[in-house]
Design a protein that fits this description.
Layout: H1 4-23, H2 31-36, E1 41-42, E2 50-54, H3 61-73, H4 76-85, E3 95-99
Antiparallel strand pairs: 1-2, 2-3
Helix pairs in contact: 1-3
Length: about 130
């Protein structure tokens, strides 16, 4: 569970980061700067008025605090992840799913196509949402 203070800080951070992502103009950057840029958005189903914005973990104390509260301070989420994936589970992606007014409902779908019979070396993944 996130504290009210962290929720407010995280919302402010996400809104600012979204504004930055939407106004970044790669045509004003050198090739080196473009290659250094982390992609702001992951692919999302039902793209109309919906974004899956990737959050930078290392560059943001706000994101780090939120993740610490969710996984360490209150261990319900981390205990659940560990019970499903084991104690060596790794964070693969951290993002904010943004659905603006007018976005369509998403149908039930898999975020990750896990096929242990065909790809035994690829570990399973678990998607967690915090609202």
């Amino acid at each position: 569970r996130l504290s009210k203070e962290t929720m407010a800080s995280l919302l402010e951070y996400i809104n600012g980061y979204l504004e930055q992502a939407l106004t970044t103009k790669v045509e004003d950057m050198s090739l080196e700067e473009i290659y250094k840029q982390q992609s702001y958005f992951a692919d999302v189903q039902g793209k109309l008025n919906r974004r899956d914005m990737l959050l930078p973990l290392e560059e943001s104390p706000t994101v780090q605090t939120a993740l610490w509260e969710l996984l360490v301070k209150d261990s319900v989420l981390s205990d659940s992840v560990e019970s499903i994936l084991g104690d060596s589970a790794q964070l693969y992606e951290l993002g904010a799913l943004i659905s603006d007014p007018g976005s369509e409902r998403q149908l039930l779908h898999a975020d990750y196509n896990y096929q242990p019979d065909f790809q035994p070396d690829i570990p399973p993944a678990l998607t967690c949402f915090v609202a």
